[in-house]
């Protein structure tokens, strides 16, 4: 009986790195093979730049970025005002601060029965503005409210930054965990 183990990696068009493990056993004249495919997330350049902008210049690779991200399911139980999410929506990567509205704590059901997440998009925002937003609104559901921040954030970020996203169309949802160390937004 011979045993062959092969591990290979390849990139697909969908920005994921696929690792396959082939386990082949030859017994008498038969060859039995089991192939396991494991998909690992490849974090986008936008997400790495976002994390660097929040005070993490040491992030150079997706593996270093992964320590600040927590994969969450597309469920209303994990959506809360004040959290920052990174997710795929169609072909684009979105990094956004969840804000509550009068209809819910960052998530509400539309008249067509779709769960909608209300956010301000944060990708491409300057470092100084981003650090102030993180310092004052991150993990602060009382202040991360549409009524309290709409005027200020629309003036600073622009009108097109407030969006609602259909939770059912969001994929690869990660919650950004910025307070793992005390160097967030200029703190020491």
Please, how many domains? Answer: 2
Uncertain segments are: 9-20, 36-41, 180-188
Treating each run of at least 4 consecutive H or I residues as one helix, how many helices?
4
Strand content: 35-45%
Q: Outline, from the CA principal axes?
A: globular
DSSP, total strands: 10
Order of helices and strands: EEEHHEEEEEHHEE
Main sheet record: 7 strands, antiparallel
Structural class: alpha+beta
What is the mean predicted local confidence, pLDDT? 76
Taking the alpha carbons of the first and last residues, their distance comes to: 60 Å
Cα gyration radius (Å): 21 Å
Helical content, roughly? 10-25%
Question: Can you describe what's shown?
Answer:
The protein is α+β, with helices and mostly antiparallel strands. It folds into two domains: 2-41; 45-186, no CATH class. The protein is built from four helices and ten strands, in the order E-E-E-H-H-E-E-E-E-E-H-H-E-E.
């Amino acid at each position: 009986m011979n045993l062959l183990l092969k591990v290979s990696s390849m990139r697909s068009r969908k920005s994921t790195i696929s690792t396959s493990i082939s386990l082949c056993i030859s017994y008498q004249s038969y060859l039995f093979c089991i192939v396991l495919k494991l998909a690992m997330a490849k974090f986008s350049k936008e997400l790495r730049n976002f994390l660097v902008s929040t005070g993490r210049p040491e992030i150079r690779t997706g593996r270093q970025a992964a320590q600040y991200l927590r994969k969450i399911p597309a469920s209303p139980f994990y959506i809360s005002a004040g959290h920052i999410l990174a997710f795929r929506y169609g072909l684009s990567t979105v990094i956004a601060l969840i804000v509550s509205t009068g209809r819910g704590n960052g998530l509400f059901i539309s008249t067509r029965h779709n769960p909608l997440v209300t956010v301000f998009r944060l990708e491409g925002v300057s470092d100084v503005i981003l650090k102030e937003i993180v310092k004052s609104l991150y993990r602060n559901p009382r202040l991360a409210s549409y009524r309290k921040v709409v005027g200020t954030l629309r003036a600073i970020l622009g009108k097109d930054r407030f969006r609602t996203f259909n939770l059912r169309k969001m994929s690869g949802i990660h919650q950004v965990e910025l307070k793992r160390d005390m160097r967030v937004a200029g703190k020491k």
